[in-house]
User: Fold this.
Amino acid sequence: MPEPADIVPALLTAAQLTVSDTELATFVRDYPLVRQGADALYLLDLGADEPAIRFDPLDFYPAGKEA
Assistant:
């Protein structure tokens, strides 16, 4: 697997973004955590469905449920 120091500049170049050296260092440092969070959105049991299909806002906002 490529290292964050290789991936992040490639992603920024593809997005046509220019960042300072400090910002780049921060992005490289934080990339594994961001990637881990993004990967956690995809659940194998959903197959080709999008992750949002499992989200029911009424579970989190019960005031919206009808009595």
